[in-house]
Design a protein that fits this description.
It contains nine helices and twelve strands. It has 309 residues and is of the alpha/beta class. The longest helix has 25 residues. The protein binds zinc ion. Zinc ion binds next to loops.
C-alpha cells in the first residue's frame, strides 16, 4: 500500500493506493497557506486517518505505507529546500526530511509534471515505451521526462521546462501580437502564451475580447472565425517549441496533461503540426491526450517509491 499527495496552491489531494496502482481512497482538502504547523497538521492528520482505516489491509504490515508527494515546484538538490513553490508554508523548507520526521516513514517529493510523466510512462500512454516526454497544458506550461521508467536528472533540480528560454517574439510579431516579458525574466518565452491562460491572451490580443479558454475552444469547435484564427496561432506557437524538443529527445510519445488535454481535436492539431516538420519520422500520433491528464500528479506520486532517487 502507498499514500500519495498532490499539493497545489489551493487544494491538497490525498490518495491511498494498492500495490498494483489501484485507488482505495481519495479526498481533497484546502491547502493551509498561513503557516507550516497548520500545513503539517493537515498532512499528518490525513496519514493518521488512513493508517487507522486501512490497518490490517496492507500485506507489508511491519512497515508503514510510504508517502509520495507531487507539487508545483522543485527541490534544491544540495539542501532539499523547496524552491519556486506557490505554497508559502513550505518555501525554503527541506520538506522530504521534515515530513519524514513527522510522519515517521519514507517520504519522496517530486515536481508535479515529473509525477505526471512517471504515471504516463508506467501506467498510461507511455506504457512499454522508452522515452516519454510528458507536457502540461494547464493554467501554464510544464513538462517532465522519463526514460527507461526513470527520471533524467540534472544539476539544479529544475528540468523539463520547455516553456522557457527561447525567445518567440519573432513568431508573435508575425501574427501581429506584441511580445511580453515572461515571469522568469526571459525576454519573450512561450510560457505566457502556451497554455489555457495563453490561449486567452492570444484571443484578447487578436480580437480584443476577453474570454475564458473553455469559451474559446467551444467557439472553435462551432466554427467561429475569430476562434479559428486564435487556435491557428496557438498551435503554431506551441508546435514550434515542441518541434525543437522532439528533435532533441526523439520521444516515443508526448502525453499531454492539464485542462487543455481534454480538447482532443486541439491536441490532434498540435500533433499534426509537430510531426509535419521534425527531422525524425513518426508514423503514429506523437502528441496525445494523457491517460491521467486530470490526476497524473497524484497517480505519479504513488509510484515515486518505485523509481531510483
Ligand atoms: Zn520564461
Amino acid at each position: 500500500m502507498k499514500y500519495a499527495f498532490d499539493i497545489g496552491g489551493t487544494k491538497i489531494e490525498f490518495g491511498v493506493f494498492d500495490d498494483q496502482g489501484g485507488i482505495l481512497h481519495r479526498q481533497k482538502v484546502a491547502t493551509p497557506l498561513e503557516n507550516r504547523d497548520d500545513f503539517t497538521s493537515v498532512i499528518a492528520g490525513l496519514v493518521a486517518e488512513a493508517d487507522a482505516r486501512f490497518a490490517g489491509c496492507d500485506a507489508d504490515a511491519d512497515t508503514p505505507p510510504p508517502v509520495g508527494i507531487s507539487f508545483a515546484g522543485g527541490l534544491d538538490p544540495e539542501t532539499g529546500a523547496v524552491i519556486s513553490a506557490n505554497i508559502p508554508p513550505i518555501k525554503g523548507w527541506p520538506m522530504t526530511r521534515g515530513l519524514g520526521d513527522i510522519l515517521k516513514r519514507a517520504v519522496r517529493v517530486e515536481n508535479d509534471a515529473d509525477c505526471f510523466a512517471l504515471a504516463e510512462a508506467r501506467l498510461g500512454a507511455g506504457t512499454g515505451k522508452r522515452t516519454v516526454f510528458a507536457i502540461i497544458l494547464g493554467t501554464g506550461v510544464g513538462g517532465g521526462i522519463v526514460v527507461d521508467g526513470q527520471f533524467i536528472g540534472g544539476r539544479s533540480g529544475i528540468r523539463g521546462e520547455w516553456g522557457h528560454g527561447n525567445d518567440i517574439s519573432g513568431p508573435l510579431m508575425r501574427h501581429g501580437i506584441k511580445p511580453r516579458q515572461c515571469g522568469c525574466g526571459g525576454a519573450s518565452c512561450l510560457d505566457p502564451w502556451g497554455a489555457a491562460r495563453g490561449l486567452e491572451r492570444i484571443h484578447s490580443a487578436l480580437h480584443g475580447k476577453d474570454l475564458p479558454s473553455q469559451d474559446i475552444t467551444a467557439a472553435w469547435r462551432a466554427g467561429n472565425g475569430d476562434a479559428l484564427k486564435t487556435i491557428d496561432v496557438f498551435v503554431d506557437l506551441v508546435a514550434g517549441q515542441l518541434r525543437l524538443m522532439v528533435n532533441v529527445l526523439d520521444p516515443d510519445i508526448v502525453p499531454v496533461g492539464g485542462g487543455l488535454a481534454a480538447e482532443q481535436g486541439l491536441i490532434a492539431r498540435i500533433d499534426a503540426a509537430v510531426r509535419a516538420n521534425v527531422l525524425g519520422r513518426y508514423d503514429h500520433a506523437l502528441v496525445v491526450p494523457g491517460q491521467f491528464f486530470a490526476d497524473g500528479g497524484l497517480r505519479g506520486a504513488a509510484l515515486l517509491h518505485d523509481v531510483p532517487a
